[in-house]
C-alpha cells in the first residue's frame, strides 16, 4: 500500500506561516516605532536649534536697534552742531557790519531828533522816537536814504507831541538794511 501521510501538515504549515507573519509584523511595527522616535527626536533637536538661532538673531537685532537709535541721535546732534556753527560763523561774519550799521545810524540822526526804541528784525531796523519838528524827521529819512547801509525808509506813524515844543512829533520809522537785503537776494537766487 502506498503511504499516506494523514498528519495535519497543512495546519502546521499555516501555523508556521502565521507565526512568521506575526513576527514579521511585530518587527515592522517595532521598526516603525524606532523610526518614529528617531524622527521626533530629530525634529525636536532641529526645532531647539532653530529656537536658539532665532534667540541669537533677536538679541543681535535688539543690539543693532540700539545702535541705530544711537546713530540717529548722533546725526541729530551733528545737525544741531552744524547749525550752531553756521549761526556763529554768520555772527562772526556780520559782527563788523552791525557796528557799521549803527555807526551810520548815529551819523544820520539830525540834531533835534531822538530815538527812544531801536529794534533790528530780519534785515530791517524799526525805530521810534521824537523830534522837534516834522522837518527833523524828514531830514532823518533823507540821511538814511543817502547812507550806504540803509534803503527804503518807511515812516509808519507821526503824532504831534507837545513835550518837544509846539511842533514836536512822535514817530515810528522802519528802514531796510541794504547789505542784508543784498545777501537775501543772492541767497534766494
**Share of helix, binned:** 55-70%
**Quaternary structure of the protein:** single chain
CATH class of the domain at 87-188: Alpha Beta
* Sequence of secondary-structure elements: HEEHEEH
Biggest beta sheet summary = 4 strands, antiparallel
What's the count of strands? 4
Please tally the helical runs, counting DSSP H or I stretches of 4 or more residues: 3
Strand content: 15-25%
Please tell me how large the radius of gyration is.
51 Å
pLDDT averaged residue by residue: 86
Please name the CATH architecture of the domain at 87-188. 2-Layer Sandwich
Class by alpha and beta content: alpha+beta
Instruction: Return residue spans where pLDDT drops below 50 for at least 5 consecutive residues.
Output: 180-189
Strand order of the largest sheet: 1-2-4-3
Labels describing this entry:
189 residues, alpha+beta, Gyrase A, domain 2, 4-stranded antiparallel beta sheet, 3 helices, 4 strands, rod-shaped, disordered C terminus
In short:
66% of the residues lie in helices and 20% in strands. The protein has 189 residues and is α+β, with helices and mostly antiparallel strands.
Explained architecture:
It contains three helices and four strands, in the order αββαββα. It has 189 residues and is of the alpha+beta class. The protein has a domain of 102 residues: General secretion pathway protein M, EpsM (Gyrase A, domain 2, 2-Layer Sandwich), CATH 3.30.1360.100. It has a four-stranded antiparallel sheet with strand order 1-2-4-3. A hairpin with an 8-residue loop joins strand 3 and strand 4. The longest helix has 100 residues.
